[in-house]
Amino acid sequence: MLAVFKREFRSYFTSVTGYLFMAVMLFFVGLYFTGYNLNGSYVSSFSYPLYSVNLIIMFAVPILTMRSLAEDRKSRTDQLLLTSPVSVSRIVLGKYLAMVAVYALVCLICALGPLVLSQYGEVNRKTDYSMLLAFFLSGCAYLAIGLYMSSLTESPVLACVGTFGVLLILYMISDIGGILPIDALASLLSQFSIRDRLQGFVYDLLDIPSLFYFLSLAGFFVFLSIQSVNKRRWR
Amino acid sequence: MIEVRNLTKRFGEHLAVDHLSFTVETGQIYGFLGPNGAGKSTTMNMMTGYLGATSGQVVIDGHDILEEPEEAKSRIGFLPELPPLYTDMTVLEYLKFAAEIKKIPRDKRWDAIEDAMERTALLDVAERVIKNLSKGYRQRVGLAQALLGMPPVIILDEPMVGLDPKQIIEIRDLIKSLGKEHTVILSSHILTEIRAVCDHILIISHGKLVASGTAESLSSQARHSSTLRLTLKETPDAVEEMLKEDGEMEQVELKAGEEEGTTELTLASRREEDIRERAFYFFARHQCPILAMNQEKVSLEELFLELTGEEESHAGRI
Q: Phi and psi at residue B28, in whole multiples of 5°?
């Protein structure tokens, strides 16, 4: 697993993908940070820019995930991986964790935000860092969805479009619920909304169930990806 | 060493491998021979655990490839049809990665890599990015990957494709040297290639094993399946009448000869035996003079074509 992780992580930085992902994410974090916190000074909390970047993630995540499993299948390198004495779950997990590590780098840089703000006055660090934790875990869930989409096809482009589609629906899911005439269904759907849950963190809430939701979403899609790779061998 | 039992693979409606069974002994070189689409690659992919079999079993050194995949896979080095290369890595980086996922112990890793590169003559290009290498070199990187750690079983799918003649000879010698202590299985659709290196040939056609043996035994099998061409001083109708009596000789072709009142007859044996004497006494008994008799030997090439060609019409003869 470690070997796969190391190779994947390195390949994100020998190719342009890792840099591109980080650049897109950090550019928008920086943009909102400047807008909300530094220039506008509407708010002193770093959780606002993070919340806003939740929209940008939809565009950035596919950059990282689209090739993860699809490319291996296309270039037949999966033959090396799947005939090596490493289980499928370890291979998929290694790849997933490599993406998480790239994303963690972004979050690590974001962790500097509240520190910068504290130079200028009082900052509620507890809110900011619990938001950052939620931001990180929700991102892990997005990455797992991207991983799964990549396991379904051998075309990275299709995986990219598919991931974007799923994330878009996930982003709008409480709006979709709002259109529906049945209230029960609407409130059920809004439970799945990552956006709504992140909003809670902006208002000074360390919402443990939401963190669990992000984690289980990530776990579920990693599990599905492993199953999907396994299943392909039997077709 | 390797046991394959009733291996079957179905892709939808298409039966790619059809109840294939064979055993592979240690320290020999086996050749899978068959035309394109015969099921060679599919079989190899199942033997290495890349594909799951629809039914049947592959046992490597006592370990079932599906039940104890890690045990079984650690005994196999595999070069697929297309070398599975990460083209953005250098040769050395790639082999390091391959050694790591093959779980070669850290202290032996470097030696294993160096040994594999030496055997495949890759030391000169160690630092080059695989993307920029020629097809022959890429093939060799794939081969080096299969040799890493010198696994007891080495499976090579079409290892000679894309190599120039000099490289083919080098790889051939390499495979021969490997065959001394390892079990090597390689596939090809070219007979001469297989005959040059393999101790044992398995001919596969339409997913079935149609013949198996050493090159010599297959050649002698081919001789036995030889046909006999006769010119007889009798009309075709009368000859046909005569032949109904004898069950051992199979009539393949019967037509009127060039001369008036003669017949050109092609005979084959139903059993693996020489039927020349039998034919002589048979026609003598029927007072039918043999004007000419000629045995046509079937070469290994023809046997291969015959076995893998329209098998229905010839199936009874081998």
A: -135, 160
What is the ipTM, given to two decimal places?
A: 0.88
Of A149, A150, A151, A197, the residue nearest A173 (C-alpha): A197
Mean pLDDT confidence for B241-255: 74
Q: Does A1 touch chain B (CB under 8 A)?
A: no
Name every chain B residue with its beta carbon within 8 A of the beta carbon of A86.
70, 101, 103
Q: Phi, psi (5° rounding) for residue A204?
A: 60, 45
Q: Are residues B162 and B191 in the same domain?
A: yes
Do the beta carbons of residue B17 and residue B44 sit within 8 Å?
A: no
B118 and B57 inside one domain = no
Same domain assignment for residues B174 and B47:
yes
Contacts of A11 in chain B (CB under 8 A): 86, 88-89
CATH label of the domain that carries residue B231: 3.30.70
Nearest to A1 by CA among A231, A226, A228: A226
Q: How confident is the model at residue A6 (pLDDT cuts 50, 70, 90)?
A: very high
**Per-residue pLDDT tens over the stretch B267-283:** 876 666 677 888 888 88
Inside any domain, residue B304: no
Whether residue B156 sits in one domain with residue B58 = yes
